[in-house]
Amino acid sequence: MITLTFHGAAGTVTGSKYLIRVNDRQVMVDCGMFQGRRSLRQKNWEPMPFVPAEIDAVILTHAHIDHMGYSPKLRKEGFSGPIYATPPTVEIVRMSLVDAAHIQEEDAEYRNRKGLTRHKVALPLFDSKDVEELHDQFEAVPFGDWVTVSKEIRFRLHIVGHVLGAACVEMILNDGHREVSILFSGDIGRYGNPLVHNPSPPLQTDYLVCESTYGGRIHEPEDPYYIFSEIINDVIKRKSILLIPAFAIGRTQQIAYLIHDLIENKRIPPIEIHIDSPMAIRSTDIYVKYADYHKVDICKLGGKKCILNGQHVHLHRKRKSSKLLNRLDGPAIIMSASGMMTGGRIMHHLINRLPKSDNTLMLAGFMAEGTLGRKIADGAKTVYIHKQPVEVRSKLVELHGLSGHADYQEILHWLEPLSNATKRVFITHGEESQSAAMAEHLKEEKGWDCHIPVLHETVEL
Ligand SMILES: [Zn+2]
Description:
Layout: E1 2-6, E2 18-22, E3 25-29, H1 38-41, E4 57-59, H2 65-68, H3 71-76, E5 83-85, H4 87-114, H5 128-134, E6 138-140, E7 147-148, E8 153-159, E9 167-174, E10 179-184, E11 207-211, H6 224-237, E12 241-245, H7 251-264, E13 272-276, H8 278-289, E14 313-315, H9 319-324, E15 332-336, H10 346-353, E16 360-363, H11 372-377, E17 382-385, E18 388-391, E19 395-398, H12 408-415, E20 424-428, H13 432-446, E21 450-451, E22 458-460
Parallel strand pairs: 3-4, 4-5, 5-6, 10-11, 11-20, 12-15, 12-16, 13-14, 13-15, 16-19, 20-21
Antiparallel strand pairs: 1-2, 1-22, 2-3, 7-8, 8-9, 9-10, 17-18
Bound molecules: zinc ion.
């Protein structure tokens, strides 16, 4: 018997966890943390509806927290098998989890100190020790190499764009009676991204698990270079600070590359760029190391050492120098994490910059429901940061076209090579309306049998 259970990214974009069971063998595809509103985050603490010790292996599609951030917890509860991912993904996951553990620890410590917990003692979901113990379980798998987990389950990874090292998973399952194939899309990237490769065409499959972050949307066909140059030129004219919340891995490098390109092409004058994220600085080293996994040799741009180490770029590793940025006068750009403004150094910049009408906040990317980023994007006039009210008076600008996620037309384009032999499609990783729209598009275009699973639903393949 072959089953698939959706333990995350069902009815929401976070917490990706798909459990494949073939007879008594089990493999989990992605092991993500739930993020966003409290009711979702709470799910990270719920008892697991599976036995971690019985899972033979975990496969990670890519290094975003909502796809891998639950792994230390899984280990803590008994999982001892290998965790497979592409070489850059393994390195980024290891690095990000160290950071995630610190955030967990700091958050618990802060809650205990300020008495903000509903519990007697606030605990981190996992700590640095849990992450350290996980270190040796990772196994790097290059794109295209078959991995046999057991005689029932084998898989290989294919390029899917999105972010450095991101993969979709082709899996062959055999329960002794029949063989079925299933493809997990992971997060599908966009075509023509300046840094990341285009998604590779998918191979024929019986079943498909397809993400739907933008299942009902089309990205505006605007030129991000033009819009971004307008934004920066305005900031320079007004001697303002441009604050950019950006994911440390992927988005920061992409934006730094864009700014570099705009300066090189004289579409903007040189401007000071402050990168205030130790993780963004470290993750650039991984971009340098895995040059084959992306399009641009970011070390040899314009003869400079690196896009994050150019003549206009200032790196802030220490907390003290991060705080000093609060006194910085414009024109300048400050880029900091986290991208959806859920924690990290960006929070003190927001407290400092949001109330100032001469500052500019740029939103670039998806903001999940319940995040501070979404509230600001939705036009909140006052937001709460660390339970303190903060007025939003700064100028708000948005830069589209940088999204790491394909829109529905790009997903349909990616799926073009698949014939109607695909038996069934499971639409996941989307807010309800987006998944429903994606299902409609796939029914219409491909005539596929589409199903939108609910959380913890099990289907037989
Ligand atoms: Zn992702």
